[in-house]
Design goal:
The complex is a heterodimer of chains A (484) and B (1112). Chain A is 33% helix and 14% strand. Chain A contains 15 helices and 17 strands. In chain A, strand 16 (462-464) and strand 17 (467-469) form a beta hairpin. In chain A, helix 10 (246-267) packs antiparallel against helix 11 and helix 13 (316-328) runs parallel beside helix 14 (347-371). The radius of gyration of chain A is 25 Å and the shape is globular. In chain B, 41% of the residues lie in helices and 10% in strands. In chain B, the strands form 6 sheets. In chain B, strands 2, 5, 6, 8, 13, 14, 15 and 18 form an 8-stranded antiparallel β-sheet that branches. Chain B has a 5-stranded antiparallel β-sheet with strand order 9-10-11-12-16, with no helix packed on it. Classes of the chains: A alpha/beta (484), B alpha+beta (1112). At the A-B interface, helix 1, helix 2, helix 3, helix 4 and strand 6 of A face helix 5, helix 9, helix 29, helix 32 and strand 22 of B.
Chain lengths: 484, 1112
């Protein structure tokens, strides 16, 4: 094959040519000339501004707070009111309704599938008159701020694949998560804090999480979600060692900088410059992160609003309060994970407990953002990875039942920047089993979220192993109907 | 590129003046489409239209013409054209048949040249103006333009100019470069020979000559020894090693160094760390539950294989097909654990087959990436968009991995392994086992002899007057439990007595009691269940036992759990269980079903809506033929499905398992209930009942008649009965047998198992799976390969053994290239093909194609000798040159593609930590063993899971803190954060290339992680103990951290820095003490704490400079 290789392009000529032509390629490295693909594949990374700079389209939202309710909250006990289930209660779900939708391996052995109504009452609230379950008294009061989507559907039926699908657009782990994509695309508005912050509520005993849900996948690792943790070290390795105070660290860093600058002189390697910057950024983070997570200055009325739990670090409520603080500091993507919505059995008591742990703080966050004017440019998202079956998993008794995973429909809501407040979008059938109006696929939801942030989801791509990947794979439509 | 009808209809009225097509396109279009009613005419006019279009004289746009003089004289398909077509056109006009638009493909000559439906061709060699593809590239009409605007892909003018010139030159197609077998060429002659040390250098120097560059000077000896030590062993050189090397003036000093490094055991560890990324090595399953699984024996094997310099072909063949190779043994099978390192899902709701398919797919992708350098996975759901790998090809490859004897169950009980599993028997254990097996065989033979030689039988037979009383007595002596289900506690009927032991009643939930075979019986509903008393039926595989029950099937059940004394299916059905499958009785006794189990199925189905008496007897032999199934006293003809039980079947409760629940009936996880089925008269016996007794228990009278008639059949039954009750030796032999079997069971249970490969006796059928969905079976395919790479030899077996023979066929164009490229990548930071994971159309082209081929052939011809390959590279001037980044080089080649300087990049994650451990002397140099738990910030695992069974990160004390990083426990859902921060692969899938980044989090790790603080402090202590002079201490500290002497500027900085630190700690003793308390190792209290702390801070700080964490 010599003959093929011998005909390699004449580099000099091509480089000269590229210098002369204004093709907008900027400084092209030799490597890119050897392989034209490289230049035209992934845009050069600019951590501050992201690859898109200002984005493709005018952005309505500057940041996102995503309250991920892991486990799959039942739509039927929360937002998707189905009075018709009263008359079907206890009866077998008709085959025509179940259709060919797959069930999980957990009910595969069940020989009867009795429909079950919500044990909790619903009422209409606010000007919009949206129906909300009695387990969400606080959310009910802010319903006019919400855009409730009842017609979500997904493709995955088990937890991890479904969480991954929601967060990365692929059921298999290893792809970049939404926050990583945004960090890659939009960069940071606050140089002293990570672009993408993750907080996990503590306690429970629920389905575990996989840290790859906030992984960077094939994107450079500085786009991975940085977990803010309750406790002394809010970010891993953030605290100085014992005996080293801030001024000591500064002094040492000055010497490190001097030595690095000297090494730069010795080797001429620009990578050393990048190291110097990273050390300075690390130093800034050591101050900015503790500041950002310090809620000691919050007044009493704020704690009253978020609830007593907000004083206990690591709770969902405390994380909601922190989310507001990080939004104030312009963190681009703030993701909370709250587990425990997986009620296969004992749903009535289980979901009530979940609601009690989350309802007040969720509503408080919306109110708090609003009173600070932040809701205008912050998108808040509430939702899980799939819905739950209209039929009972396990035995249906007067006081007890369960529901299995159900990808066919589920409810989420969005609030704030760019979405219509006081809206209910999409409908499911009288069983709350199939979407019958305005279906919203997970990729549609992702496309919409990106749209609100000013990104055309088809155009934010990253080339990896020869293929241009994007969050929405080859699918996804912006849900225009919910845009304000 | 046909101008399809619908495109025209959608077309808006736009001018195409800029196209400079000197014909009346607009007019024609207007004529055709001003009236939507003209649709039928479109077809007629289209041909005419195209003829006019083609006939038009085409000018190349000025901006294209301007670029022409900058193009190479000869445009090459592989190097110039294909990258453009592949990136911009193949998505719609490439190998993927399903998404081909306009019936056009541009990846083949035939496709591109052929006449399109309406006349004309996309590409007409030598005739640019007749090439429709070109016309559309230069169009500015969005309806015509290619690629279409909605694709968000654009051709640059340079790309268009390249394509135009290629068409003008004849549009010659060639096979993809990497699919053409490498050809060995003579290393090229270079102008300046003085720098050449190895043939490698001829290639690199020659390439540099073209740029007016040359290889850099050889690096300093200090740099060389540190560079080579990290590259070969992953560890820094010691000061003594550096000094010795600096002193060694012999001409072969460097070669000796290389030989020493390649001969060290650390070499195997360094290579293994790299291979662990390829193998997606982890200590846990992945997915949410992320159960832990010990694969360290495989890792130990990899280290050993590298250290023994196992040829690469053998190394790979054993890992892919070590169970099938002729020399197959424990070691070759252990190597195949490589294939089972995929992620495994143990969520309760999974469909096993879905994940079995996922695992086979993962193995296929790993084969592609690790050995073939191809992103095979792209063809899972559709034909590959860029490479000539069809979806069918994908499933042909998948077929090689589709016959593994596994069913997708996670089987995560504490001592369980989802099969195929390999017992990792030590030599000593093997000796013991051999002895025990021999003894068991002897005893079994003895038992046989006892039977056949028994002269007493005829005498007994003559005298025998067998009565009901005798039989009743003998049977009831060994009856240990009897549940007639006739009486219940009065209140809620949730208890029913065991008539033999009042302390062990059956517990019923939601009892459904109806008339039964005899009195009342338990009937199954959707949700109810029954559980016999504590430890009733608690038998090991060495225990002979029997059980009997009356069963009433209400209908024909596809599958229904009748009775079980076992774990759930996802825990491998450990125990024994009786199931109805199409109403046929299926008996399973398992340690880890299906591989480590016996399974028999009766040929006759049970009648519907009738009571049948079912008896199962077992002799304690762990063999299928030790089991007998009887219905209504009659032995049933059975088929043996599995017969390979070799580990214990008792299942204690454990946090990961549900554990012992007694013999149960009713609703069962993952089984459809035996709904409306009845169960009655349940009996458990502590021995194997004889056929006579079973018959008797069904029908006393006919048994007694049989006893009297003494036909040959009845004599046979009587003989069995006689042996079991009247032969004087039999019981002794049986007792002895049980003892030895118990010993064997105990021994085997203690032997670790590991997941390996092993195929079903009959291969599973493989189908194309539509959209990649596990149950959407399409066309059936045979195992095979993408023929475009290399045809699969006719004589090769269609299994993994055939696959590896194909892979290592000298004609295979990929295997050697892919491996040498990765070795090159280890040294230079990037491969000759930068996309070491993709040698396909979308991958990058080789920077030094002839060198890649030369190395590939050298490697093959040299017997795939890995160490030789290393040595060749290590002793080349290309490797040995210094890495100074001059202004000229930075401008011309910032990424050092052409290798005008030596490699310089941040150390990989493992080496960053191992370096700190090594220079402090904390490193524990022990090869192999289970993974360890070094320092890790508290709570990382707990934050992700608070399940009762969640795993705890139990940080070790002592040795475990200081092992090399490749031994650090790898939990897939929460990998070691400090390693992730330094860009280690996440081990979810095969990875052959890490993506280095530079982030502030890395700075935080190096500045604050106790591991590094402790190491720095220990370095300081050693220096203080070893050296009195501060300046010397500082110099030494610097040398330890960076491998070189500080220059004067640096010496001054260090001195100044140290003084300030000492001042600080002298002033604040508490701070010094606090600083010294970090880490588990105690500081030497005889020393001055301020001095240690001050020096420690300096050492840590030097470790935070670029030279310390960079391979230079």
């Amino acid at each position: 094959m010599d003959q093929y290789f011998n005909k390699i392009i004449q580099q000099e000529t091509r480089r000269d040519f590229l210098k002369k032509t204004a093709m907008g390629l900027g400084s092209i490295a030799l490597s890119n000339l050897i392989n034209p693909l490289e230049t035209l594949g992934n845009a050069r990374l600019d951590t501050k501004n992201g690859v898109l700079g200002l984005g493709h389209i005018p952005a309505k939202a500057k940041r996102v707070i995503y309250l991920f309710q892991s486990g799959g909250p039942s739509q039927l006990e929360t937002f998707d009111y189905k009075p018709s289930l009263n008359k079907w209660h206890g009866q077998e779900i008709p085959d025509s309704v179940r259709g060919s939708q797959r069930n999980s391996g957990m009910v595969a052995s069940q020989s009867t599938f009795p429909l079950v109504r919500s044990i909790y009452d619903f009422k209409q609230y606010g000007q919009s008159g949206a129906w909300v379950s009695e387990i969400f008294p606080h959310t009910a009061k802010i319903v006019d701020e919400l855009c409730i989507v009842k017609s979500m559907y997904t493709e995955a039926i088990n937890h991890e694949p479904a969480v991954m699908f929601m967060q990365t657009g692929s059921q298999l782990s290893g792809r970049p998560s939404i926050g990583s994509w945004l960090s890659y695309g939009l960069g940071s508005d606050n140089e002293n804090l990570p672009n993408f912050v993750v907080m996990v509520s503590q306690g429970g005993g629920a389905q575990p999480l996989n840290s790859q849900s906030w992984g960077n996948g094939f994107l450079p690792s500085h786009h991975q979600g940085v977990q803010f943790r309750s406790g002394a070290d809010p970010v891993l390795y953030l605290n100085n060692p014992y005996g080293i105070h801030k001024e000591d660290r500064r002094r040492a860093l000055d010497y490190i900088k001097k030595m690095n600058e000297h090494q730069l002189g010795l080797w001429g390697d620009p990578e050393i410059e990048s190291n110097i910057n990273q050390y300075e950024m690390a130093f800034r983070m050591q101050t900015s992160v503790p500041d950002a997570v310090d809620v000691s200055g919050e007044p009493d009325h704020i704690y009253e609003m978020y609830g007593e739990d907000a004083k206990k670090p690591g709770t969902y409520a405390a994380n909601c309060l922190l989310a507001r603080k990080l939004a104030e500091k312009d963190v681009k993507f703030i993701q909370l994970y709250h587990t425990g919505w997986d009620q296969h059995g004992g749903l009535p008591s289980g979901i009530k407990r979940q609601a009690q742990d989350t309802d007040q703080a969720t509503a408080a966050l919306i109110k708090d953002l609003k009173q600070r004017g932040l809701l205008e440019d912050t998108l808040v998202v509430w939702g899980g990875e799939f819905g739950r079956t209209s039929f009972s998993q396990g035995q249906l008794t007067k006081t007890n039942y369960g529901r299995d995973h159900h990808p066919g429909c589920f409810s989420m809501w969005m609030a704030g920047a760019g979405v219509k407040p006081g809206m209910v979008y999409g409908q499911t059938d009288e069983f709350g089993y199939n979407v019958i109006e305005n279906p919203v696929h997970v990729h549609d939801f992702q496309a919409t979220m990106m749209h609100l942030l000013g990104i055309d989801h088809e155009r934010l791509t990253f080339k990896y192993q020869g293929r241009r990947f994007r969050l929405t794979d080859v699918h996804g439509k912006v849900v225009k109907g919910i845009l304000a | 590129m046909p101008l399809a009808v619908d495109t025209y209809q959608l077309r808006k009225d736009k001018t195409i003046q800029q196209m400079k097509i000197k014909c009346c396109l607009n007019a024609i279009r207007h004529f055709l489409f001003s009236d939507g009613l003209l649709k039928p005419f479109v077809y007629i006019f289209q041909g005419l239209f195209l003829l006019i279009l083609i006939g038009c004289d085409v000018d190349k746009p000025d901006e294209i013409v301007k670029l022409e003089k900058n193009l190479p004289d000869v445009i090459d398909y592989n190097f110039h054209v294909k990258p453009i077509l592949s990136d911009k056109c193949f998505a719609c006009h490439g190998p993927d048949m399903a998404s081909q638009k306009g019936d056009l493909r541009l990846d083949t000559e035939e496709g591109a040249y052929k006449a399109v439906a309406d006349g004309g061709s996309a590409i007409v060699p030598g005739e640019l103006k007749n090439s429709l593809a070109f016309m559309r590239m230069i169009s500015e009409d969005p309806e015509i333009k290619m690629p279409p605007p909605e694709s968000h892909l654009q051709l640059t003018n340079l790309e268009i100019a390249t394509l135009a010139k290629w068409i003008e030159q004849g549009a010659e197609y060639k096979p993809h470069w990497s699919f053409i077998p490498p050809v060995k060429s003579e290393p090229p002659k270079v102008k300046n020979n003085s720098k050449i040390k190895q043939p490698i250098d001829n290639f690199t120097e020659k390439r540099l000559e073209r740029e007016g560059l040359s290889l850099s000077e050889i690096a300093s000896k200090e740099t060389l020894i540190r560079r080579a030590s990290f590259d070969v062993t992953g560890l820094p050189p010691t000061i003594t090693e550096i000094d010795d090397f600096l002193k060694d003036d012999s001409s072969n000093a460097y070669e000796k160094l290389v030989d020493r490094l390649l001969g060290s055991e650390a070499y195997g560890e360094r290579m293994a760390a790299d291979w662990m990324d390829v193998a997606r090595y982890a200590d846990s399953d992945g997915y949410l539950d992320d159960k832990h699984r010990d694969f360290s024996p495989w890792r130990d094997w990899v280290i050993k294989a590298f250290n023994e310099n196992m040829p690469y072909d053998q190394f790979a063949i054993w890992q892919l097909a070590g169970d099938l190779v002729p020399e197959s043994n424990q070691e070759t099978k252990l190597a195949t654990a490589f294939n089972r390192l995929n992620k495994k899902n143990s969520e309760a709701g999974i469909v096993y087959e879905e994940y079995r398919v996922e695992y086979a797919a993962d193995r296929t992708h790993t084969l592609g990436k690790a050995f073939m350098g191809l992103s095979i996975e792209c063809a899972r759901c559709h034909d590959h968009k860029y490479d000539p790998i069809s979806q069918k090809d994908y499933y042909k490859l998948f077929g090689f991995f589709n016959s593994t004897f596994e069913i997708g169950t996670p089987v995560y009980g504490p001592d369980q392994t989802p099969g195929p599993a390999l017992l990792l028997t030590s030599e000593e254990q093997q000796e013991q086992l051999d002895f025990l097996h021999k003894t068991i065989a002897e005893q079994e033979a003895k038992a046989e002899l006892t039977k056949t030689n028994d002269m007493g039988f005829e005498q007994w037979l003559k005298k025998m007057k067998l009565t009901s009383n005798d039989l009743n007595k003998q049977i009831s002596e060994d009856l240990v439990a009897y549940y007639p289900f006739d009486q219940f506690n009065s209140k809620d009927k949730t208890e029913s007595p065991n008539v033999l032991d009042s302390s062990k009643p059956a517990k019923l939930s939601q009892p459904n009691i109806k008339p039964g075979k005899d009195g009342k019986a338990f009937f199954v509903t959707d949700y109810n269940s029954a559980r016999l008393g504590e430890k009733v039926g608690w038998y090991e595989r060495t225990d002979p036992f029997s059980f009997q029950l009356w069963v009433y099937p209400d209908t024909v059940y596809k599958e229904a759990a009748v009775m079980w004394h076992s774990e759930d299916r996802r825990l491998g059905l450990k125990g024994y269980s009786l199931t109805l499958r199409d109403n046929k009785l299926e008996f399973i006794m398992a340690h880890s079903w299906p591989q480590n189990a016996i399974q028999l199925t009766a040929k006759q189905a049970l009648p519907v809506k009738e009571w049948s008496q079912v008896t199962v007897t077992y002799d304690g032999s762990s063999k299928a033929d030790g089991v007998a199934i009887y219905v209504n006293g009659e032995p049933q003809s059975t088929s043996t499905d599995f017969d390979n039980l070799y580990k214990g079947i008792l299942y204690e409760k454990n946090i990961h398992t549900y554990g012992f629940g007694g013999i149960r009936f009713g609703v069962r996880t993952k089984f459809v209930p035996f709904k409306n089925g009845g169960i009655d008269e349940v009996k458990v016996y502590k021995r194997k009942l004889t056929a006579l007794e079973v018959l008797y228990s069904y029908d006393e009278n006919s048994t007694l008649l049989l006893v009297k008639d003494q036909s040959s059949e009845s004599k046979k039954m009587l003989y069995e009965y006689y042996i079991s009750h009247y032969n004087p030796d039999y019981h002794d032999v049986a007792k002895k047998l049980k003892e030895i079997r118990d010993k064997e069971n105990e021994l085997v249970n203690g032997i670790q198992e590991i997941m390996v490969m092993g195929d079903l006796p009959e291969p599973r059928s493989t189908y194309v799976l539509n959209r990649g969905v596990y149950n959407a079976q399409g066309e059936q395919v045979e195992p095979g390969v993408p023929e475009s790479v290399l045809p699969f030899g006719q004589s090769l077996p269609k299994n993994r053994l055939g696959l590896v023979k194909w892979l290592f066929d000298p004609e295979n164009p990929l295997t050697a290239r892919v491996f040498v490229n990765r070795i090159w990548q280890m040294y230079f930071g990037k491969g000759i093909v930068e996309t070491s994971d993709d040698f396909g159309s979308q991958g990058s082209l080789p920077s030094h194609p002839e060198l890649l081929d030369w190395l590939a052939i050298y490697f093959q011809e040299n017997g795939w000798n890995v160490k030789d390959l290393h040595k060749l590279i290590l002793t080349s001037a290309t490797y040995m040159q210094n890495s100074l980044v001059t202004k000229e080089l930075q401008e011309k080649d910032p990424e050092n593609i052409l290798l005008a300087r030596g490699p310089r990049f941040r150390l990989p994650a493992e080496m960053i930590r191992d370096n700190a451990l090594a220079i402090s002397g904390l490193l524990v140099n022990k090869i192999g063993g289970k993974s360890v738990y070094p320092y890790q910030p508290a709570g990382i695992w707990d934050e992700l899971s608070t399940k009762s069974w969640s795993y705890k990160y139990l940080q070790e004390s002592g040795e475990g803190l200081y092992r090399r990083s490749l031994y650090t426990i790898w939990k897939r859902t929460a990998p070691p954060p400090s390693m992730l921060i330094f860009d280690i692969a996440d081990r979810g899938v095969c990875t052959v290339r890490r993506k280095p980044t530079s982030t502030p989090l890395q700075a935080l790790v190096l500045l604050n992680d106790p591991q590094f603080i402790e190491a720095g402090r220990v370095v300081a202590e050693h220096l203080i103990q070893y050296e009195n002079d501060t300046t010397k201490r500082l110099n030494m500290a610097f040398r330890l951290a960076t491998g070189r002497f500080p220059d004067d500027t640096e010496k001054n900085m260090l001195n100044e820095f140290y003084k300030e630190e000492l001042k600080k700690f002298d002033k604040n003793k508490e701070d010094a003490l606090a600083f010294l308390s970090i880490g588990e190792s105690r500081w030497d209290e005889k020393l001055n704490p301020s001095e240690i702390a001050a020096l420690g801070v300096v050492v840590n700080s030097v470790m935070n400079t670029n030279d310390a964490f960079t391979k230079n």
